[in-house]
Predict the structure.
Amino acid sequence: MKTLFVNIGTLAGITPKGTLRLEGHAMDQVQCIEDAWLLVEDGLIKSFGTGTPPREEAAKVDACGGMLMPSFCDSHTHIVYAGSRDGEFLDKLNGLSYEEIAARGGGILNSADRLHHTSEDELYRQAMERVREMTLKGTGAIEIKSGYGLNPEDELKMLRVIERIRKSYPGTIRSTFLGAHAVGRGYTHEDYVRLVCEMMPEAARYADFVDVFCDEGFFTVEDTARILEAGARCGLRPKIHANELAVSGGVQVGVRYGALSVDHLERTGEEEIQALKGSQTMPTMLPGSSFFLGIPYGRARDFIDAGLGVALASDYNPGSSPSGDMRFVMALGCIRMRLTPQRAFNAVTLNAACAMGISDITGSIAEGKRADLILTQPGWDIVKIPYLHHTPFIRQVFIGGEAYS
Ligand code: NIG
Ligand code: FE
């Protein structure tokens, strides 16, 4: 099965074969060609170029001068959750902080209670609605975490739901065991950390990665190290929640255990930058939660100027970032974090793919990669996407070369 895209105004986000991440000033550029064509075969990018397209027996897509770019990769979400937490939204508007809501038994524990009383079928249905919404907004690869179960039975229920999404979704799904999201009801802290370690072999049947909320009031660096060691014994690489609520030491412990990414990083400084230098860990910032919680934005510019790569992700969840709109994430990256549109583009495509270990198969335009693509309306370019941040720009999303609807 072949599809030939013709009349592409700009083909954006081309990387040389084998480029798995962009760091430092390499993030300043997005390689583009004008007046282009692109050939897809069996869901993969077969070839592309400029000028006259090749003569091929293929279904044709007339891009009508629009831009064709890689679809967004969202390397940090919590989209398997039950219902909503709109009551807490009102508490927040009345002045309560994220920590105060959590201390009252709201927050993550509120979602855990709801999830406990929701069937697997219903959880799947609700999560798939979010997946569909995200895909129509241009996302083609999603990492999804457990972490609203907080006991063995409900954590596995979540991981099975993620597995079901993985099997039915045409894009790419990665699954993360976040048993250590909060201490489950009825456990002491110490007992719960031990239990998370004990859950690991069963969780590893489904999960690709292990995550810990290493932050003030949640899990310590010592807890995190124990859990990551248990994860490593089961072949799970870490992705860490760190430095959202306090300077937690989460970045350093993540790097020490070879984390694929350390995420949030709203409160980081020179020490975290130094810890990340020379590592394979992708610093990942979540401006949607800074926006929603009114907390600082990560210092992405300083990280990039220090020579590091940065990814941006949505953190889509009911408590701190109830949106999976990666275009909005890109806009916040520019408007609030003062990234250039090119840096933000690289952060939500290739580097976000790298932060979930899939930049060899998606996240940029390169021969042999999946044809996960956004076709824009005519007249769009990389700068306009965050600048005109709420004007509809997508004409069609293609996942594995197939038009998504
Ligand atoms: O990444 N910070 C920890 N976990 C999520 C929030 C989860 C929730 O509030 O439900 C986050 O922001
Ligand atoms: Fe999160």
